[in-house]
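Long-time lurker. I teach an intro course on protein structure, and each term I like to show students one example going from raw sequence to a predicted 3D structure in token notation. This year I'd like something fresh instead of my usual example. Would anyone be willing to generate the tokens for the chain below so I can use it in lecture? Attribution to the forum is fine with me.
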Amino acid sequence: MDTDIIEIQKPKPVDPVETIVVPEITENEKEEIKKQQEEEEQDQQQEDEDNKIVPEIKKEENNTVNNNNNDDDNTKKVSNVKRGVCQIQGPTRGKPVSGRVWKTPSTKFNSAIKVNKGLQTTFEQKQKQREDLKRMKEKQNEIREKTKQDKIDMHNSIRENKKIKEENIKKSEQVQVINNTLKLKKLSKKDWKLYRKN
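-- Reply from a regular --
Happy to contribute to a lecture. Here you go:
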């Protein structure tokens, strides 16, 4: 038997950034590979952000007997902190003054509200509304003027009634004419109020 010598070439070390395209891969497999790559990129970005945001956790329990349990606790704490951190857009956020790194920065509430413009009215409807409003304002002005005029008339009638009453009182008075002015000089101030000049 002839033995053929087959040379096996060692594969060249592949840079992890480069992707090798194999022609025999189906489209479904390509999509899965792309998804995996995107997930890896997202995980890498998340880890980069977490490294910037997550504070170093103090290892206070190193002196205890169970070192393995302590390591598990520390990893749990880190994972809990990582879960609480959300992706922040824009510049990296430093450590807050309050020390509460797990709190997410507040966003403007007004930007979240979407206001409906409502039903759009036609030009004819707007014209009709304007005319109705104009008529209503005219009616209001008429009513106000009428109430003002009524008040003025009422005050005038009250004044006239007072004048008539005073005249009637003067007519019905019994008057004593004083011809001698020397008597007036002897009167006190209280008595003077009772007298009147004609």
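Some talking points for your students: Residues 124-173 form one domain. DSSP finds five helices and no strands in the chain.
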